[in-house]
Structure to design on (75 residues):
């Protein structure tokens, strides 16, 4: 991603009952005040900086179990 841009990271999780979805950064916190997660579980990072580079994890959890997916963001 280009510094200063907005990045969208998608996470598709479905089930019955619907799983709870959470995003986190593997080493560190999501950028405070510069991120949001929408209804479709897409993580948006605003005005990205070099500090935002790293591995992001989407975790979906329900009574049936837990599944996770990772992606790496390069700035």
């Amino acid at each position: 991603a280009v510094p200063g841009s907005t990045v969208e990271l998608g996470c598709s999780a479905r089930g019955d009952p619907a799983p709870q979805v959470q995003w986190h950064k593997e080493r560190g916190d999501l950028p405070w005040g510069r991120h949001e997660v929408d209804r479709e579980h897409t993580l948006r990072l605003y005005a990205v900086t070099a500090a935002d580079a790293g591995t992001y994890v989407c975790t979906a959890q329900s009574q049936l179990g837990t599944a996770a997916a990772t992606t790496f963001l390069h700035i």
